[in-house]
Automatic annotation (TrEMBL):
Keywords: NADP, Oxidoreductase. Residues 3-91 form the NmrA-like domain. This is NmrA-like domain-containing protein. It comes from Apiospora aurea. InterPro entries: NAD(P)-bd_dom_sf (IPR036291), NmrA-like (IPR008030), NmrA/Isoflavone_reductase-like (IPR051609). Belongs to the NmrA-type oxidoreductase family. Isoflavone reductase subfamily.
Amino acid sequence: MTVIAVAGGNGKLGLAIVEALVATGEHQVLILTRDASNMEAKAGVQLIAVNYDDVRELTSVLEANGIEMVICTTNLISSFEPELNLIQAAERSSCT
């Protein structure tokens, strides 16, 4: 069973991807989000709060949860930096 994290998995596109992955029953799916404190898990999926500005923290989260694949659906409002940091973290992670 592949462990897949969907960054931005609470948004419209992200949630559609999460629900499709969950429906297959073939993957463990997690949602990476900036703030999990006020949110309920959607589609029965665990939310993990992350700081997209901290590559070390992102790397630690990926490794601690055994995340093998990351799908990014975050909003590109002002900068590509969060997505670039997530790519760096995935490259540094031993399991992703």
